[in-house]
Specification:
With 594 residues, this protein is an alpha/beta fold. Strands 9, 10, 11, 12, 13, 14, 15, 16 and 17 form a 9-stranded mixed sheet that branches. Strands 1-8-7-3-4-5-6-2 form an 8-stranded mixed sheet. The longest helix is centred in the N-terminal third of the chain and has 30 residues, at 48-77. The structure holds phosphoenolpyruvate and magnesium ion.
C-alpha cells in the first residue's frame, strides 16, 4: 500500500491554486480517471488461490456497479439506451472469458491484473480483425469491461473509502459523478492535477469546508493510495512523503491554529450595509453532506440546488418517486425562504458520459439543451419538483438559457405537466420559473428574457467562462479567468438592470458571490440577493455589513469604465484598502499581476 516500505521515498513538493483554505495531514486516496495500466508480477504458488479469489471478488464488484449504472441509464435515457450495459454484463458472465483469465492466473502464476489485461487484449485483437463494422466497434465494450475489472482489482474504488479515515482525495480531475460516489465524511482534503477556481472540485470542497488545491499538474503521477501527504492550501503547497521534520513543523502549526469555531450570528444571511441597504445571503447546495451548513451558517433558504448531483449518487435518482423524495428533503431543509431547484445541468464539465462524444462539450448538448432533447427526463424531473413543492416553497431555474425560445419550450412542458398532475388528482403546486443567465446571448437579450420568466439567477462561473472564452476547469488558462474583467462587469450590470426594469428578483449564485471582494462589487452593481457555498456566508456577511452600498456603487462605476481586468483589479485593491482597511487585507484582494 504505502510507498514507505523499504527506503523512504524522498519528499516532493508541488505548488498549485488554493481553492479552499486549510492545512491537513492525511493519506492519499487516488481516484482514477481515464485509462488504467496493468503490470505483470509473478506470484508465489501458495498465493494463487488468493489471487483467484481477488479476481472473483473484482468480477462481483464490477457486476454490481454495472447493474446500478444500467438502472440509472434506463431511468435517465430510457431502456433503449441501457442495453449497452447488457453487453458488458454478459461479458462478466461469460464463462469462457472468466475461465481463460483464471487459467492464466493459475498456470502462469500471474497477478490478476495482468491476466485480465492479457486475455482482454487477446479478445480485443480478435475483434479488430472482424470485417463487420458493427462487431468490430464492440471492441470498445471489451476495453470498458477490462477497465472496470482492473479498477475493481485496484482496491481504489470509492466503495473502499470507508476504511480510510484520513483520506486526501487525489485525482487528475474530479467529475461530479465521482464526488457523489465518494464517502466524503472521511475526506480531509481534495487535490487535483487540473481545475480552476470555479471547477466543481473547488465548489464542492468549499461546500464541505475542507481544504482543496487544483492545478497541481502531475501530482497524480507520483501519489499512490496510502502515501502520506500534507495539503497546505494557506501556502498553496502540497507535500508528498513529508519527512519527519516537515511533519513536525506541520503538526506544530496545526496545534497553534485556533480550534474554537468562529461565532456565527443566527441570521447571518439577512444583513444591512452601513447605509441601510438590505442584502440576503442564501446557500448553494449539491450534496447531502452539505445540507447541515444551510442552517449552521444562517442561510436565508437555498438559492441554488444543483440537482444533477442526484444522478450520480448510487441508488438515488431517477424515478419520479425518488426525485420527489430528494426534492421534498430540499424543500424542508430550505424552510420558509424556499429553494431554487435547477433542472439537470448535465453535459459540459458536469459529466463524462454525456459529453465524451462531443468535440466541444462546453458548447455542446449541455444543461437546458440536454433537458429539451431528453424530454421524458425533463418531464419526470418537473413532475417530481412540482409534487415536492407541496412540502415547502420550491422554484425551478432553467440552466444555460440562450434566449426566450429555450424558456418558452421549457415552460410549455412545465405547464403541460402541471395540468397533467392536476388531472391525475396528484397534489402539486404551480411553480415559479427562472432563467440562469450565464451565456452572452442571454445577457444581450436579458430585457426580453425578463418578460418571460419569474426571476433571474446569475451564474457567474459560466458567465465568466463564456464571456471571456476561458475554460473554467483548465488550469493552463486560469490566469485568463478574470471575474473582474470589465466585459464581465458590464454583463452583470446589464442583467441586473434588466431584472430591475422588469421588476423581477435576481439572485447571483456563481462563486463570485462567495468571495468577499467580489460580493462588494456585486452589491455595487445593484445585486441584493447572493447565493453561495454555505461556509462562505459568515465572511461575506461580515464584509457586506461593514461597507456602504453607496461607496460600493461608486467603485463599481469606476470599474465599469475600465478597459482591462488589470485596471479594474488595481482600482479594487486601492479603493478597498483605503475605504475599508479593517475589512480587507491584501490577501483578500486580487494579487497584482507581474
Ligand atoms: C454558474 O455557472 O455560475 C453556476 C452557478 O452554475 P455551475 O457552477 O453549476 O455551472
Ligand atoms: Mg453554470
Amino acid at each position: 500500500m504505502s510507498a514507505e516500505v523499504g527506503s523512504a521515498p524522498a519528499e516532493r513538493r508541488w505548488r498549485g491554486l488554493s481553492v479552499s483554505e486549510g492545512l491537513v495531514i492525511g493519506r492519499v486516496l487516488r481516484i482514477h480517471k481515464g485509462a488504467r495500466h496493468a503490470y505483470p508480477a509473478r506470484i508465489e504458488i501458495g498465493d494463487v488461490n488468493r489471487e483467484l479469489e481477488r479476481f472473483r471478488e473484482a468480477i462481483a464488484l464490477a457486476r454490481g456497479q454495472l447493474l446500478e449504472i444500467k438502472e440509472r441509464a434506463a431511468n435517465l435515457l430510457g431502456q433503449d439506451h441501457a442495453y449497452i450495459f447488457d453487453a458488458h454484463l454478459l461479458m462478466l458472465e461469460d464463462t469462457k472469458f472468466i475461465d481463460e483469465i483464471e487459467k492464466y492466473i493459475s498456470n502462469r502464476r500471474a497477478n490478476a491484473e495482468w491476466a485480465v489485461k492479457v486475455i482482454g487484449d487477446r479478445l480485443l485483437a480478435l475483434y479488430e480483425k472482424i470485417k463487420d463494422d458493427y462487431l468490430r466497434e464492440r471492441g470498445s465494450d471489451i476495453e470498458d469491461v477490462v477497465h472496470r475489472v482492473l479498477e475493481a482489482l485496484s482496491g481504489e474504488r470509492p466503495a473502499y473509502l470507508d476504511s480510510l479515515e484520513d483520506a486526501v482525495i487525489v485525482s487528475e480531475d474530479l467529475l461530479p459523478s465521482a464526488v457523489a460516489e465518494l464517502d466524503l465524511k472521511h475526506a480531509r482534503a481534495i487535490v487535483t492535477d487540473a481545475g480552476g477556481w470555479t471547477s466543481h472540485t473547488a465548489i464542492i470542497a468549499r461546500g464541505l469546508g475542507i481544504p482543496s488545491m487544483v492545478g497541481l499538474e502531475n501530482l497524480c503521477q507520483y501519489a499512490r493510495t496510502g502515501d502520506k501527504i500534507i495539503v497546505d492550501s494557506y501556502h498553496s503547497e502540497v507535500v508528498l512523503h513529508p519527512t519527519a521534520t516537515t511533519l513536525e513543523e506541520c503538526e506544530a502549526q496545526l496545534s497553534t491554529a485556533p480550534s474554537a469555531a468562529p461565532h456565527i450570528p443566527k441570521a447571518a444571511g439577512a444583513l444591512r450595509t452601513t447605509d441601510g441597504v438590505h442584502v440576503r445571503l442564501r446557500a448553494n447546495v449539491e450534496l447531502p453532506a452539505e445540507f447541515a451548513g444551510v442552517a449552521k451558517y444562517g442561510a436565508l433558504g437555498i438559492g441554488l440546488f444543483r440537482s444533477e448531483f442526484l444522478l450520480a449518487q448510487p441508488g438515488v435518482m431517477h424515478s419520479e418517486e425518488k426525485q420527489y423524495q430528494a426534492y421534498s428533503q430540499v424543500a424542508e431543509l430550505a424552510g420558509e425562504n424556499g429553494a431554487v431547484v435547477r433542472l439537470f445541468d448535465l453535459g459540459g464539465d458536469k459529466s463524462d458520459s454525456a459529453s465524451d462524444s462531443e468535440r466541444n462539450p462546453a458548447l455542446g448538448l449541455r444543461a437546458i439543451r440536454f433537458c429539451l432533447r431528453n424530454e421524458s427526463v425533463l418531464r419526470t424531473q418537473v413532475r417530481a419538483i412540482m409534487r415536492a413543492a407541496t412540502k415547502g416553497r420550491l422554484d425551478i431555474v432553467l440552466p444555460m438559457i440562450a434566449d426566450v425560445t429555450d424558456v418558452e419550450i421549457a415552460r410549455r412542458i412545465i405547464d403541460e405537466e402541471c395540468g397533467r398532475l392536476d388531472a391525475e388528482g396528484v397534489a402539486c403546486k404551480a411553480i415559479q420559473v427562472g432563467a440562469m443567465i450565464e451565456v452572452p446571448s442571454a445577457v444581450m437579450t436579458a430585457e426580453k428574457l425578463a418578460r418571460v420568466v419569474d426571476f433571474f439567477e446569475l451564474g457567474t462561473n459560466d458567465l465568466v467562462q463564456y464571456v471571456l472564452a476561458v475554460d473554467r476547469g483548465n488550469d493552463k488558462v486560469a490566469d485568463w479567468f478574470r471575474s473582474l474583467h470589465p466585459a464581465v462587469l458590464d454583463s452583470l450590470s446589464r442583467t441586473i438592470k434588466a431584472a430591475d426594469g422588469a421588476g423581477i428578483p435576481m439572485i447571483v449564485c456563481g462563486e463570485m458571490a462567495s468571495t468577499p471582494a467580489y460580493a462588494v462589487i456585486l452589491v455595487g452593481l445593484g445585486a441584493r440577493d447572493l447565493s453561495m457555498t454555505p461556509s462562505s456566508i459568515p465572511k461575506v456577511a461580515r464584509v457586506l455589513s461593514g461597507v456602504s452600498a453607496a461607496d460600493a456603487e461608486a467603485i463599481a462605476q469606476e470599474c465599469l469604465a475600465c478597459a482591462s481586468a488589470d485596471e479594474v483589479e488595481n482600482i479594487v485593491r486601492e479603493r478597498f484598502l483605503k475605504h475599508w482597511p479593517t475589512l480587507f487585507t491584501t490577501k483578500m484582494l486580487p494579487a497584482p499581476r507581474p
